Amino acid sequence: MTAETGDSLRRWPIERPTTPREAYRWCERYARRHDENFTVVSFLLPKKLRRHFFAVYSFCRYTDDLGDEAEGDRLALLDAWERDLLDAVAGNPRRPLLIALARTIERCEIPLDPFLRLIEANRMDQRVSRFATYEDVLTYCSYSATPVGQMVLAVLGYRDEERVALSDQTCIGLQLANFWQDVSVDIKKGRIYLPQEDLKRFGVSEEQIIERRFDERYRALLQFEVERARACFAEGKKLERRVSRSVRTDIRLFRLGGEAILDAIEGAGYDTLSARPRVTKAVKARLALTNGARVALGL
């Protein structure tokens, strides 16, 4: 958890009554403070949906902060967070974030399972720091990534298997893109998300990653992994024509934000050991404006 997150929550004592309107405003402020690779909520998203997007994003962001940055016993903190969530949906929300989220879950009829799976993904982060195979990475993504897309689809009113499957592909692509972008960051936390079978295939050792020694073998490995993520985005792209025009930009921006990460990795020559490739604010703004215009023109 960042210091900012902790300070923000301390300014909202559990005992203080908070109206749903105040709670949703808290979520919006919290969401806008975080720098993401993609636009969380675009200016074209219908106004009635924005507060629900902010509530879902805030839950996901805060849960990840607990699993990645909180001081102390993270497993205990995640267990407490899960209890707070269950209390909230049972009618006793005690934090602004959960006051808003409980209302969103009820209004949008979102199943509880995706939220619980995301919390479990962060528990897994405390126990697992290596993945033997790509299939193991995909299993992890079924906890860490695809639940987020399922939350978003439910807010939009979609629950059919076809759209969920396409959303899953986009979310897996996003998770993979973040993994490949953050190799130099994750190794500081003792984590390597690159499959062990792929390290062996390309002749890259864990010691090389730990020591951040970039070479042609690592370049080939990352190029291979980037193409895997691109294939996920190519499949997930089909979802964009299966949602209403009013929300198409936001769905498209999730994909384009992930592809922009991959472009940044390629632009860095696939060197994600020396530094973390970044998607600039200028790129994010261009994507939002360009694709907003596309939707306005019915493209």
Question: How would you summarize this macromolecular structure in one to three sentences?
Answer:
With 299 residues, this protein is mainly alpha-helical. It has helices at residues 3-10, 20-32, 47-69, 74-89, 96-108, 113-127, 134-144, 146-156, 161-181, 183-186, 196-202, 206-210, 216-236, 245-267, 281-296.
Structure, explained:
The chain is mostly helical and 299 residues long. Helix 2 packs across helix 3 (47-69) and helix 3 runs antiparallel to helix 4 (74-89). 69% of the residues lie in helices and 0% in strands. The chain has helices at residues 3-10, 20-32, 47-69, 74-89, 96-108, 113-127, 134-144, 146-156, 161-181, 183-186, 196-202, 206-210, 216-236, 245-267, 281-296. The protein is globular.
Give the topology, please.
Elements: H1 3-10, H2 20-32, H3 47-69, H4 74-89, H5 96-108, H6 113-127, H7 134-144, H8 146-156, H9 161-181, H10 183-186, H11 196-202, H12 206-210, H13 216-236, H14 245-267, H15 281-296
Q: Compute the gyration radius: what is it?
A: 19 Å
Structural class: mainly alpha
Sheet with most strands: none
Number of beta strands: 0
Overall geometry: globular
List low-confidence stretches.
1-15, 292-299
* SSE order, one letter for each helix or strand: HHHHHHHHHHHHHHH
- What portion of residues belong to β-strands? under 5%
The number of helical runs is 15
Portion of residues within helices: 55-70%
Mean pLDDT figure = 88
